[in-house]
Amino acid sequence: RAGGQGPAGPSPAGTCPRPRHAGAAHAQSAAGGPAMAPRVLPLPRQRSFLPPSVRNPFAHPRRLSAADKLRTILLGIILLPLRAICIVIILLLAWVFASIATFRHPRKGSVPLKGWRRTMIQRALSCLTRTVFFVMGFRVKVKGKIAGPLEAPIFVAAPHSSFFDAIVSALTGMPSMVSRAENLSAPLFGTILSSLQPVSVSRQDPDSRKNTVTEITNRAMSGGQWPQILIFPEGTCTNRSCLITFKQGAFIPRVPVQPVLLRYPNKLDTVTWTWQGYSFKELCVMTLCQPFTRVEVEFLPVHVPTEEEKKDPILFANRVRESMASALNVPVTDHTFEDCRLMISAGQLTLPMEAGLVEFTKISKKLNLKWNHVREQLDTFAAIASASKGGRIGIEEFAEYLKLPVSDVLKELFLLFDRNGDGTIDFREYVIGLSILCNPANTEETIQMAFKLFDMDDDGTITEDEFACIIQSALGLPELDVSQLFKEIDADETGKLSYDEFKDFALKHPEYAKLFTTYLELQRYQLNMAEEDDFEPPEANDAPARKSTGAGSETTATARNKAHPDGNEDDNSSTSDKKDD
Protein backbone atom coordinates (compact mmCIF):
# COMPACT_ATOMS: atom_id res chain seq x y z
CA ARG A 1 0.00 0.00 0.00
CA ALA A 2 1.32 3.43 -0.87
CA GLY A 3 -1.49 5.92 -0.33
CA GLY A 4 -0.52 9.40 0.79
CA GLN A 5 3.16 8.65 1.23
CA GLY A 6 3.88 9.30 -2.44
CA PRO A 7 4.47 12.77 -3.82
CA ALA A 8 1.36 14.91 -3.99
CA GLY A 9 -0.11 16.52 -7.10
CA PRO A 10 0.97 19.93 -8.36
CA SER A 11 0.39 22.83 -6.02
CA PRO A 12 -1.61 25.87 -7.09
CA ALA A 13 1.58 27.88 -7.45
CA GLY A 14 2.97 25.29 -9.85
CA THR A 15 5.93 24.44 -7.60
CA CYS A 16 7.19 20.91 -7.26
CA PRO A 17 5.67 19.35 -4.13
CA ARG A 18 7.77 17.60 -1.49
CA PRO A 19 6.55 14.58 0.47
CA ARG A 20 5.62 15.23 4.05
CA HIS A 21 8.52 14.76 6.54
CA ALA A 22 10.87 13.56 3.77
CA GLY A 23 11.84 17.07 2.75
CA ALA A 24 12.62 18.01 6.32
CA ALA A 25 14.76 14.93 6.78
CA HIS A 26 16.71 15.57 3.60
CA ALA A 27 17.13 19.26 4.39
CA GLN A 28 18.39 18.44 7.85
CA SER A 29 20.92 16.01 6.40
CA ALA A 30 22.02 18.50 3.75
CA ALA A 31 22.54 21.17 6.39
CA GLY A 32 24.89 18.94 8.29
CA GLY A 33 22.33 17.89 10.89
CA PRO A 34 21.78 14.35 12.15
CA ALA A 35 21.30 11.79 9.41
CA MET A 36 18.30 9.54 9.08
CA ALA A 37 18.20 6.88 11.80
CA PRO A 38 19.02 3.43 10.46
CA ARG A 39 15.87 1.49 9.75
CA VAL A 40 15.55 -2.00 11.16
CA LEU A 41 14.47 -4.43 8.46
CA PRO A 42 11.01 -5.83 9.30
CA LEU A 43 11.90 -9.38 8.30
CA PRO A 44 15.06 -11.36 9.14
CA ARG A 45 17.25 -12.76 6.39
CA GLN A 46 16.32 -16.30 5.36
CA ARG A 47 19.01 -18.58 6.72
CA SER A 48 18.55 -20.86 3.72
CA PHE A 49 19.98 -18.08 1.54
CA LEU A 50 23.12 -17.56 3.61
CA PRO A 51 26.40 -17.93 1.68
CA PRO A 52 27.84 -21.47 1.55
CA SER A 53 30.54 -22.48 4.03
CA VAL A 54 32.86 -23.23 1.11
CA ARG A 55 32.97 -20.37 -1.35
CA ASN A 56 34.56 -22.16 -4.32
CA PRO A 57 34.90 -25.97 -4.33
CA PHE A 58 36.04 -25.93 -7.97
CA ALA A 59 39.42 -24.26 -7.48
CA HIS A 60 42.76 -25.80 -6.54
CA PRO A 61 45.59 -23.27 -6.18
CA ARG A 62 49.03 -24.01 -7.57
CA ARG A 63 51.26 -24.46 -4.51
CA LEU A 64 54.47 -26.00 -5.77
CA SER A 65 57.40 -24.47 -3.93
CA ALA A 66 60.85 -24.16 -5.47
CA ALA A 67 62.01 -27.21 -3.48
CA ASP A 68 59.02 -29.24 -4.66
CA LYS A 69 59.73 -28.31 -8.27
CA LEU A 70 63.39 -29.25 -7.96
CA ARG A 71 62.61 -32.61 -6.31
CA THR A 72 59.95 -33.34 -8.95
CA ILE A 73 62.40 -32.66 -11.77
CA LEU A 74 65.20 -34.78 -10.28
CA LEU A 75 62.92 -37.75 -9.52
CA GLY A 76 61.13 -37.37 -12.83
CA ILE A 77 64.32 -37.92 -14.80
CA ILE A 78 64.37 -41.50 -13.55
CA LEU A 79 60.76 -42.33 -12.61
CA LEU A 80 58.83 -40.73 -15.46
CA PRO A 81 60.25 -42.73 -18.42
CA LEU A 82 60.26 -46.06 -16.54
CA ARG A 83 56.68 -45.66 -15.34
CA ALA A 84 55.46 -44.45 -18.72
CA ILE A 85 56.89 -47.54 -20.45
CA CYS A 86 55.33 -49.90 -17.89
CA ILE A 87 51.92 -48.18 -18.16
CA VAL A 88 51.90 -48.54 -21.95
CA ILE A 89 52.72 -52.26 -21.71
CA ILE A 90 49.98 -52.86 -19.12
CA LEU A 91 47.41 -50.94 -21.17
CA LEU A 92 48.22 -53.07 -24.22
CA LEU A 93 47.70 -56.22 -22.17
CA ALA A 94 44.39 -54.84 -20.87
CA TRP A 95 43.31 -54.12 -24.44
CA VAL A 96 44.09 -57.73 -25.42
CA PHE A 97 42.00 -59.17 -22.57
CA ALA A 98 39.15 -56.72 -23.26
CA SER A 99 39.14 -57.65 -26.95
CA ILE A 100 39.01 -61.37 -26.14
CA ALA A 101 36.20 -60.93 -23.60
CA THR A 102 34.03 -58.97 -26.03
CA PHE A 103 34.92 -60.88 -29.22
CA ARG A 104 31.76 -61.85 -31.13
CA HIS A 105 29.63 -61.02 -28.15
CA PRO A 106 26.01 -60.76 -29.38
CA ARG A 107 24.36 -57.36 -29.20
CA LYS A 108 27.41 -55.76 -27.66
CA GLY A 109 26.38 -53.71 -24.63
CA SER A 110 22.71 -54.72 -24.71
CA VAL A 111 23.06 -57.97 -22.75
CA PRO A 112 25.38 -58.65 -19.81
CA LEU A 113 28.64 -60.55 -20.20
CA LYS A 114 28.39 -63.97 -18.60
CA GLY A 115 30.51 -66.99 -17.82
CA TRP A 116 34.20 -66.87 -18.72
CA ARG A 117 33.88 -63.46 -20.36
CA ARG A 118 32.72 -61.80 -17.18
CA THR A 119 35.27 -63.70 -15.09
CA MET A 120 38.08 -62.56 -17.37
CA ILE A 121 37.02 -58.93 -17.03
CA GLN A 122 36.63 -59.09 -13.27
CA ARG A 123 39.92 -60.85 -12.60
CA ALA A 124 42.29 -59.93 -15.42
CA LEU A 125 41.34 -56.27 -15.83
CA SER A 126 41.02 -55.75 -12.10
CA CYS A 127 44.52 -57.14 -11.56
CA LEU A 128 46.01 -55.09 -14.40
CA THR A 129 44.35 -51.90 -13.12
CA ARG A 130 45.78 -52.45 -9.67
CA THR A 131 49.17 -53.01 -11.25
CA VAL A 132 48.93 -49.74 -13.18
CA PHE A 133 48.24 -47.79 -10.01
CA PHE A 134 51.07 -49.61 -8.21
CA VAL A 135 53.48 -48.72 -11.01
CA MET A 136 52.38 -45.07 -10.83
CA GLY A 137 53.37 -45.09 -7.16
CA PHE A 138 49.96 -45.30 -5.51
CA ARG A 139 49.82 -46.86 -2.06
CA VAL A 140 46.20 -47.85 -1.45
CA LYS A 141 44.67 -48.33 1.99
CA VAL A 142 41.25 -49.98 2.06
CA LYS A 143 38.78 -49.72 4.95
CA GLY A 144 35.44 -51.42 5.38
CA LYS A 145 33.76 -54.35 3.64
CA ILE A 146 32.84 -54.35 -0.04
CA ALA A 147 29.17 -55.29 -0.61
CA GLY A 148 28.13 -57.87 -3.20
CA PRO A 149 25.81 -57.29 -6.20
CA LEU A 150 22.70 -58.51 -4.42
CA GLU A 151 23.47 -56.54 -1.26
CA ALA A 152 24.20 -53.21 -3.01
CA PRO A 153 23.76 -53.00 -6.80
CA ILE A 154 25.16 -49.43 -6.85
CA PHE A 155 28.34 -47.86 -5.45
CA VAL A 156 28.29 -44.09 -4.88
CA ALA A 157 31.77 -42.62 -4.53
CA ALA A 158 32.67 -39.14 -3.25
CA PRO A 159 34.28 -36.70 -3.12
CA HIS A 160 35.10 -36.89 -6.82
CA SER A 161 38.30 -34.90 -7.26
CA SER A 162 40.47 -36.66 -9.83
CA PHE A 163 40.65 -39.05 -12.75
CA PHE A 164 42.73 -41.19 -10.37
CA ASP A 165 39.46 -41.95 -8.53
CA ALA A 166 39.18 -44.84 -11.00
CA ILE A 167 41.13 -46.87 -8.41
CA VAL A 168 37.70 -47.69 -6.93
CA SER A 169 36.93 -49.74 -10.07
CA ALA A 170 39.89 -52.05 -9.47
CA LEU A 171 38.91 -52.57 -5.84
CA THR A 172 35.26 -53.40 -6.60
CA GLY A 173 35.77 -55.94 -9.43
CA MET A 174 35.50 -53.56 -12.42
CA PRO A 175 31.84 -52.46 -12.16
CA SER A 176 30.02 -50.64 -14.92
CA MET A 177 30.15 -46.83 -15.02
CA VAL A 178 28.30 -43.99 -16.67
CA SER A 179 30.31 -42.69 -19.63
CA ARG A 180 29.87 -40.50 -22.69
CA ALA A 181 29.09 -42.44 -25.85
CA GLU A 182 32.02 -40.74 -27.60
CA ASN A 183 34.49 -42.42 -25.22
CA LEU A 184 33.56 -45.87 -26.55
CA SER A 185 35.03 -45.04 -29.96
CA ALA A 186 38.41 -43.90 -28.61
CA PRO A 187 41.33 -46.09 -29.69
CA LEU A 188 42.63 -48.52 -27.06
CA PHE A 189 40.66 -47.01 -24.17
CA GLY A 190 37.36 -47.45 -26.04
CA THR A 191 37.79 -51.23 -26.19
CA ILE A 192 38.75 -51.45 -22.53
CA LEU A 193 35.82 -49.26 -21.53
CA SER A 194 33.38 -51.25 -23.68
CA SER A 195 34.35 -54.45 -21.86
CA LEU A 196 33.06 -52.89 -18.66
CA GLN A 197 29.65 -52.44 -20.31
CA PRO A 198 29.15 -48.81 -19.24
CA VAL A 199 25.86 -46.93 -19.28
CA SER A 200 26.47 -44.61 -22.24
CA VAL A 201 25.24 -41.04 -22.40
CA SER A 202 24.80 -39.33 -25.76
CA ARG A 203 24.87 -35.53 -26.03
CA GLN A 204 23.08 -35.69 -29.39
CA ASP A 205 20.11 -37.60 -27.99
CA PRO A 206 17.58 -35.24 -26.32
CA ASP A 207 16.18 -38.18 -24.36
CA SER A 208 19.62 -39.33 -23.22
CA ARG A 209 19.17 -38.30 -19.59
CA LYS A 210 15.85 -40.15 -19.35
CA ASN A 211 17.25 -43.23 -21.10
CA THR A 212 20.30 -43.26 -18.81
CA VAL A 213 18.14 -43.28 -15.68
CA THR A 214 16.00 -46.06 -17.16
CA GLU A 215 19.08 -48.15 -18.00
CA ILE A 216 20.57 -47.68 -14.52
CA THR A 217 17.25 -48.71 -12.97
CA ASN A 218 16.95 -51.84 -15.14
CA ARG A 219 20.49 -52.95 -14.34
CA ALA A 220 20.20 -52.21 -10.62
CA MET A 221 17.03 -54.32 -10.39
CA SER A 222 18.32 -57.21 -12.51
CA GLY A 223 19.07 -59.37 -9.47
CA GLY A 224 22.82 -59.60 -10.10
CA GLN A 225 22.70 -60.40 -13.83
CA TRP A 226 24.48 -57.13 -14.65
CA PRO A 227 27.67 -55.98 -12.93
CA GLN A 228 27.39 -53.49 -10.12
CA ILE A 229 27.36 -49.84 -11.13
CA LEU A 230 29.87 -47.25 -9.90
CA ILE A 231 28.54 -43.67 -9.90
CA PHE A 232 30.16 -40.42 -8.81
CA PRO A 233 26.94 -38.58 -7.87
CA GLU A 234 28.53 -35.11 -7.71
CA GLY A 235 28.86 -35.18 -11.49
CA THR A 236 32.06 -33.09 -11.58
CA CYS A 237 35.39 -32.78 -9.81
CA THR A 238 35.89 -30.65 -6.69
CA ASN A 239 38.78 -29.89 -4.34
CA ARG A 240 37.40 -32.23 -1.62
CA SER A 241 36.66 -29.31 0.72
CA CYS A 242 32.95 -30.22 0.78
CA LEU A 243 30.35 -32.46 -0.83
CA ILE A 244 28.32 -30.65 -3.47
CA THR A 245 24.80 -31.61 -4.59
CA PHE A 246 24.31 -35.28 -5.46
CA LYS A 247 22.51 -35.95 -8.72
CA GLN A 248 19.53 -38.27 -8.46
CA GLY A 249 20.52 -40.91 -11.03
CA ALA A 250 21.96 -43.34 -8.47
CA PHE A 251 18.96 -43.00 -6.16
CA ILE A 252 15.98 -43.15 -8.52
CA PRO A 253 16.14 -47.00 -8.78
CA ARG A 254 15.26 -47.14 -5.05
CA VAL A 255 17.78 -49.91 -4.35
CA PRO A 256 20.42 -50.12 -1.58
CA VAL A 257 23.64 -48.25 -2.30
CA GLN A 258 27.07 -48.50 -0.72
CA PRO A 259 28.81 -45.17 -0.06
CA VAL A 260 32.53 -45.11 -0.90
CA LEU A 261 34.82 -42.41 0.50
CA LEU A 262 38.04 -41.23 -1.16
CA ARG A 263 40.90 -39.49 0.63
CA TYR A 264 44.35 -38.43 -0.58
CA PRO A 265 46.39 -37.72 2.59
CA ASN A 266 49.50 -36.40 0.83
CA LYS A 267 51.71 -33.48 1.82
CA LEU A 268 52.00 -32.47 -1.84
CA ASP A 269 48.70 -32.69 -3.71
CA THR A 270 49.30 -33.74 -7.32
CA VAL A 271 45.95 -35.43 -7.96
CA THR A 272 43.23 -32.76 -7.56
CA TRP A 273 41.79 -31.90 -10.97
CA THR A 274 39.42 -28.93 -10.84
CA TRP A 275 38.18 -26.18 -13.15
CA GLN A 276 40.78 -23.79 -11.75
CA GLY A 277 44.17 -25.38 -11.21
CA TYR A 278 46.54 -27.82 -12.85
CA SER A 279 45.70 -29.39 -16.20
CA PHE A 280 45.31 -33.11 -16.92
CA LYS A 281 48.83 -33.39 -18.40
CA GLU A 282 50.45 -31.43 -15.56
CA LEU A 283 48.85 -33.65 -12.92
CA CYS A 284 49.86 -36.84 -14.72
CA VAL A 285 53.49 -35.75 -15.02
CA MET A 286 53.72 -34.47 -11.43
CA THR A 287 52.13 -37.64 -10.02
CA LEU A 288 54.42 -39.93 -12.01
CA CYS A 289 57.42 -37.96 -10.71
CA GLN A 290 56.51 -38.57 -7.04
CA PRO A 291 58.05 -41.51 -5.14
CA PHE A 292 54.58 -42.55 -3.97
CA THR A 293 51.04 -41.19 -3.62
CA ARG A 294 48.77 -42.24 -0.78
CA VAL A 295 45.06 -42.90 -1.26
CA GLU A 296 42.50 -44.18 1.23
CA VAL A 297 39.30 -45.86 0.07
CA GLU A 298 36.67 -46.47 2.75
CA PHE A 299 33.54 -48.54 2.16
CA LEU A 300 30.74 -47.43 4.49
CA PRO A 301 27.87 -49.72 5.51
CA VAL A 302 25.20 -50.24 2.85
CA HIS A 303 22.45 -47.61 2.96
CA VAL A 304 19.07 -49.32 2.55
CA PRO A 305 16.41 -46.73 1.60
CA THR A 306 13.39 -46.31 3.81
CA GLU A 307 9.88 -46.17 2.36
CA GLU A 308 10.06 -42.38 2.62
CA GLU A 309 13.37 -42.30 0.74
CA LYS A 310 12.06 -44.63 -1.96
CA LYS A 311 9.31 -42.13 -2.71
CA ASP A 312 11.70 -39.16 -2.74
CA PRO A 313 15.06 -39.62 -4.56
CA ILE A 314 16.19 -36.15 -3.47
CA LEU A 315 15.70 -37.06 0.19
CA PHE A 316 17.49 -40.37 -0.43
CA ALA A 317 20.46 -38.59 -2.03
CA ASN A 318 20.66 -35.93 0.68
CA ARG A 319 20.69 -38.45 3.50
CA VAL A 320 23.42 -40.50 1.86
CA ARG A 321 25.39 -37.30 1.29
CA GLU A 322 24.96 -36.27 4.93
CA SER A 323 26.26 -39.60 6.18
CA MET A 324 29.28 -39.41 3.85
CA ALA A 325 30.01 -35.79 4.81
CA SER A 326 29.82 -36.73 8.49
CA ALA A 327 32.34 -39.54 7.99
CA LEU A 328 34.63 -37.20 6.03
CA ASN A 329 34.08 -34.33 8.49
CA VAL A 330 33.39 -31.85 5.69
CA PRO A 331 30.38 -29.55 5.06
CA VAL A 332 27.81 -29.90 2.29
CA THR A 333 26.92 -27.19 -0.22
CA ASP A 334 24.37 -26.81 -3.01
CA HIS A 335 26.85 -26.26 -5.83
CA THR A 336 26.39 -28.25 -9.05
CA PHE A 337 27.92 -28.60 -12.50
CA GLU A 338 25.73 -25.68 -13.59
CA ASP A 339 27.80 -23.50 -11.25
CA CYS A 340 30.87 -24.57 -13.20
CA ARG A 341 29.24 -23.39 -16.41
CA LEU A 342 28.41 -20.04 -14.82
CA MET A 343 31.96 -19.85 -13.48
CA ILE A 344 33.37 -20.31 -16.99
CA SER A 345 30.96 -17.68 -18.33
CA ALA A 346 32.11 -15.26 -15.62
CA GLY A 347 35.71 -15.75 -16.71
CA GLN A 348 34.74 -15.03 -20.30
CA LEU A 349 33.14 -11.77 -19.13
CA THR A 350 36.45 -10.72 -17.49
CA LEU A 351 35.03 -11.33 -14.02
CA PRO A 352 36.79 -13.52 -11.44
CA MET A 353 35.65 -17.06 -12.20
CA GLU A 354 34.32 -17.62 -8.68
CA ALA A 355 31.96 -14.67 -9.22
CA GLY A 356 29.63 -17.00 -11.15
CA LEU A 357 29.07 -19.38 -8.24
CA VAL A 358 25.52 -19.08 -6.88
CA GLU A 359 24.72 -22.57 -5.52
CA PHE A 360 22.51 -23.16 -8.53
CA THR A 361 20.56 -26.07 -7.05
CA LYS A 362 19.29 -24.00 -4.13
CA ILE A 363 18.73 -20.82 -6.14
CA SER A 364 16.88 -22.54 -8.99
CA LYS A 365 14.65 -24.54 -6.66
CA LYS A 366 13.72 -21.78 -4.21
CA LEU A 367 13.41 -18.97 -6.75
CA ASN A 368 12.18 -21.04 -9.73
CA LEU A 369 15.01 -19.88 -12.00
CA LYS A 370 16.34 -21.53 -15.13
CA TRP A 371 20.03 -21.63 -16.02
CA ASN A 372 19.57 -19.47 -19.11
CA HIS A 373 17.85 -16.77 -17.07
CA VAL A 374 20.66 -16.71 -14.50
CA ARG A 375 23.18 -16.58 -17.34
CA GLU A 376 21.44 -13.48 -18.75
CA GLN A 377 21.58 -11.85 -15.32
CA LEU A 378 25.33 -12.56 -15.26
CA ASP A 379 25.72 -10.38 -18.37
CA THR A 380 23.96 -7.48 -16.65
CA PHE A 381 25.96 -7.96 -13.47
CA ALA A 382 29.21 -7.97 -15.44
CA ALA A 383 28.24 -4.70 -17.11
CA ILE A 384 27.67 -3.09 -13.70
CA ALA A 385 30.74 -4.56 -11.98
CA SER A 386 33.15 -4.07 -14.88
CA ALA A 387 34.58 -0.89 -13.36
CA SER A 388 35.07 -2.40 -9.90
CA LYS A 389 37.73 -4.74 -8.61
CA GLY A 390 37.01 -8.25 -7.41
CA GLY A 391 33.84 -8.75 -9.44
CA ARG A 392 31.58 -7.04 -6.88
CA ILE A 393 29.27 -4.03 -7.08
CA GLY A 394 29.85 -1.12 -4.71
CA ILE A 395 27.40 1.65 -3.92
CA GLU A 396 29.05 3.92 -6.51
CA GLU A 397 28.74 1.36 -9.33
CA PHE A 398 25.16 0.66 -8.25
CA ALA A 399 24.27 4.35 -8.41
CA GLU A 400 26.04 4.81 -11.75
CA TYR A 401 24.14 1.88 -13.27
CA LEU A 402 20.81 3.36 -12.14
CA LYS A 403 21.97 6.82 -13.32
CA LEU A 404 21.10 8.22 -9.90
CA PRO A 405 23.17 9.81 -7.14
CA VAL A 406 23.85 8.12 -3.83
CA SER A 407 20.95 8.96 -1.52
CA ASP A 408 19.17 7.52 1.52
CA VAL A 409 16.69 5.70 -0.71
CA LEU A 410 19.45 4.23 -2.87
CA LYS A 411 21.44 3.22 0.21
CA GLU A 412 18.36 1.47 1.56
CA LEU A 413 17.91 -0.49 -1.66
CA PHE A 414 21.62 -1.33 -1.72
CA LEU A 415 21.36 -2.61 1.86
CA LEU A 416 18.57 -4.97 0.84
CA PHE A 417 20.78 -6.47 -1.87
CA ASP A 418 23.88 -6.62 0.35
CA ARG A 419 22.84 -9.67 2.34
CA ASN A 420 26.07 -10.19 4.29
CA GLY A 421 26.59 -6.48 5.02
CA ASP A 422 30.12 -6.27 3.61
CA GLY A 423 29.38 -3.12 1.60
CA THR A 424 29.36 -4.86 -1.77
CA ILE A 425 26.96 -6.96 -3.87
CA ASP A 426 28.26 -10.18 -5.38
CA PHE A 427 26.51 -12.05 -8.20
CA ARG A 428 24.74 -14.43 -5.84
CA GLU A 429 23.29 -11.52 -3.85
CA TYR A 430 22.35 -9.80 -7.11
CA VAL A 431 20.37 -12.83 -8.36
CA ILE A 432 18.60 -13.27 -5.02
CA GLY A 433 17.86 -9.54 -4.83
CA LEU A 434 16.31 -9.38 -8.28
CA SER A 435 14.16 -12.45 -7.61
CA ILE A 436 13.03 -11.66 -4.07
CA LEU A 437 13.02 -7.87 -4.03
CA CYS A 438 12.70 -6.41 -7.51
CA ASN A 439 10.69 -8.82 -9.63
CA PRO A 440 7.83 -9.21 -7.08
CA ALA A 441 7.72 -5.40 -6.72
CA ASN A 442 7.66 -4.93 -10.48
CA THR A 443 3.97 -5.80 -10.88
CA GLU A 444 1.46 -4.25 -13.24
CA GLU A 445 -0.20 -2.57 -10.27
CA THR A 446 3.07 -1.02 -9.07
CA ILE A 447 3.95 0.21 -12.56
CA GLN A 448 0.48 1.75 -13.01
CA MET A 449 0.68 3.44 -9.62
CA ALA A 450 4.14 4.83 -10.38
CA PHE A 451 3.02 6.12 -13.78
CA LYS A 452 0.03 7.93 -12.25
CA LEU A 453 2.25 9.56 -9.66
CA PHE A 454 4.65 10.78 -12.34
CA ASP A 455 1.80 11.91 -14.64
CA MET A 456 1.00 14.96 -12.51
CA ASP A 457 -1.47 16.60 -14.95
CA ASP A 458 -3.30 13.35 -15.79
CA ASP A 459 -2.80 13.73 -19.55
CA GLY A 460 -1.59 10.15 -20.08
CA THR A 461 2.06 11.11 -20.64
CA ILE A 462 5.04 12.11 -18.51
CA THR A 463 7.10 15.14 -19.48
CA GLU A 464 10.73 15.57 -18.50
CA ASP A 465 9.74 18.29 -16.01
CA GLU A 466 7.22 15.97 -14.34
CA PHE A 467 9.74 13.14 -14.32
CA ALA A 468 12.47 15.35 -12.85
CA CYS A 469 10.12 16.83 -10.26
CA ILE A 470 9.19 13.46 -8.76
CA ILE A 471 12.72 12.02 -8.88
CA GLN A 472 14.21 15.15 -7.31
CA SER A 473 11.55 15.13 -4.61
CA ALA A 474 11.94 11.43 -3.90
CA LEU A 475 15.72 11.64 -3.55
CA GLY A 476 15.73 15.03 -1.83
CA LEU A 477 18.05 16.49 -4.50
CA PRO A 478 16.36 19.51 -6.13
CA GLU A 479 19.31 20.17 -8.45
CA LEU A 480 19.53 16.59 -9.78
CA ASP A 481 19.86 16.29 -13.58
CA VAL A 482 17.77 13.32 -14.79
CA SER A 483 17.84 14.14 -18.50
CA GLN A 484 20.06 11.17 -19.37
CA LEU A 485 17.75 8.72 -17.58
CA PHE A 486 14.69 10.33 -19.19
CA LYS A 487 16.20 10.00 -22.68
CA GLU A 488 16.94 6.33 -22.08
CA ILE A 489 13.28 5.68 -21.23
CA ASP A 490 11.98 7.87 -24.09
CA ALA A 491 12.43 5.26 -26.82
CA ASP A 492 10.58 7.20 -29.56
CA GLU A 493 12.34 10.48 -28.66
CA THR A 494 9.11 12.50 -28.50
CA GLY A 495 10.01 14.28 -25.29
CA LYS A 496 7.15 12.55 -23.49
CA LEU A 497 6.86 9.11 -21.93
CA SER A 498 3.88 6.97 -22.80
CA TYR A 499 2.70 4.23 -20.48
CA ASP A 500 4.07 1.57 -22.85
CA GLU A 501 7.53 3.14 -22.82
CA PHE A 502 7.40 3.52 -19.04
CA LYS A 503 6.28 -0.09 -18.57
CA ASP A 504 8.82 -1.51 -21.04
CA PHE A 505 11.69 0.22 -19.23
CA ALA A 506 10.38 -0.91 -15.83
CA LEU A 507 10.20 -4.56 -16.94
CA LYS A 508 13.75 -4.46 -18.30
CA HIS A 509 15.09 -2.71 -15.18
CA PRO A 510 13.26 -4.18 -12.17
CA GLU A 511 15.67 -2.43 -9.79
CA TYR A 512 13.71 0.80 -10.26
CA ALA A 513 10.48 -0.84 -9.08
CA LYS A 514 12.07 -1.75 -5.77
CA LEU A 515 13.67 1.69 -5.60
CA PHE A 516 10.20 3.20 -5.93
CA THR A 517 8.59 0.95 -3.31
CA THR A 518 11.61 1.42 -1.01
CA TYR A 519 11.09 5.18 -1.26
CA LEU A 520 7.44 4.76 -0.24
CA GLU A 521 8.43 2.52 2.67
CA LEU A 522 10.98 5.08 3.84
CA GLN A 523 8.37 7.84 3.76
CA ARG A 524 6.02 5.67 5.81
CA TYR A 525 8.80 4.93 8.27
CA GLN A 526 9.78 8.60 8.60
CA LEU A 527 6.14 9.61 9.04
CA ASN A 528 5.63 7.07 11.80
CA MET A 529 8.85 8.14 13.54
CA ALA A 530 7.79 11.78 13.37
CA GLU A 531 4.36 10.99 14.78
CA GLU A 532 5.94 9.09 17.67
CA ASP A 533 8.34 11.99 18.38
CA ASP A 534 5.50 14.56 18.34
CA PHE A 535 3.07 12.42 20.35
CA GLU A 536 1.29 14.17 23.24
CA PRO A 537 -1.65 13.16 25.46
CA PRO A 538 -4.94 13.31 23.52
CA GLU A 539 -6.39 15.94 25.88
CA ALA A 540 -3.55 18.35 25.16
CA ASN A 541 -3.48 18.32 21.38
CA ASP A 542 -6.84 17.04 20.27
CA ALA A 543 -7.93 20.39 18.82
CA PRO A 544 -4.61 21.21 17.12
CA ALA A 545 -4.56 17.77 15.61
CA ARG A 546 -7.99 18.32 14.09
CA LYS A 547 -6.90 21.71 12.77
CA SER A 548 -3.72 20.26 11.27
CA THR A 549 -5.67 17.46 9.67
CA GLY A 550 -8.08 19.91 8.14
CA ALA A 551 -5.36 22.16 6.82
CA GLY A 552 -3.43 19.35 5.19
CA SER A 553 -6.41 17.36 3.99
CA GLU A 554 -6.38 18.71 0.48
CA THR A 555 -2.78 17.72 -0.24
CA THR A 556 -3.13 14.36 1.46
CA ALA A 557 -6.30 13.50 -0.38
CA THR A 558 -4.75 14.45 -3.68
CA ALA A 559 -1.77 12.19 -3.15
CA ARG A 560 -3.87 9.29 -1.96
CA ASN A 561 -6.27 9.58 -4.89
CA LYS A 562 -3.40 9.81 -7.39
CA ALA A 563 -2.14 6.47 -6.18
CA HIS A 564 -5.62 4.96 -5.81
CA PRO A 565 -7.86 6.90 -8.24
CA ASP A 566 -10.78 4.61 -7.57
CA GLY A 567 -10.55 5.12 -3.83
CA ASN A 568 -12.77 7.21 -1.57
CA GLU A 569 -12.20 10.95 -1.94
CA ASP A 570 -13.91 11.75 1.35
CA ASP A 571 -11.62 13.89 3.49
CA ASN A 572 -13.07 12.72 6.78
CA SER A 573 -10.97 9.58 7.12
CA SER A 574 -9.81 8.73 10.59
CA THR A 575 -6.31 9.31 11.97
CA SER A 576 -5.63 5.58 12.01
CA ASP A 577 -6.59 5.35 8.34
CA LYS A 578 -4.11 8.11 7.45
CA LYS A 579 -1.38 6.35 9.42
CA ASP A 580 -2.09 3.08 7.60
CA ASP A 581 -1.91 4.89 4.27
TrEMBL record:
It is found in: Membrane. The gene is Lpcat2. One of its GO terms (molecular function) is lysophosphatidic acid acyltransferase activity. Residues 24-36, 548-559 have a biased composition (Low complexity). Keywords: Acyltransferase, Calcium, Lipid biosynthesis, Lipid metabolism, Membrane, Metal-binding, Phospholipid biosynthesis, Phospholipid metabolism, Repeat, Transferase, Transmembrane, Transmembrane helix. The chain crosses the membrane at residues 72-100. Residues 405-440, 442-477, 479-512 form the EF-hand domain. It comes from the Eukaryota. This is PCAT2 acyltransferase. Its main location: membrane. Pathway: Phospholipid metabolism; Lipid metabolism; phospholipid metabolism. It holds the Pfam family Acyltransferase. The keyword Metal-binding applies. Belongs to the 1-acyl-sn-glycerol-3-phosphate acyltransferase family. PANTHER family: LYSOPHOSPHATIDYLCHOLINE ACYLTRANSFERASE 2 (PTHR23063:SF21), PHOSPHOLIPID ACYLTRANSFERASE (PTHR23063).
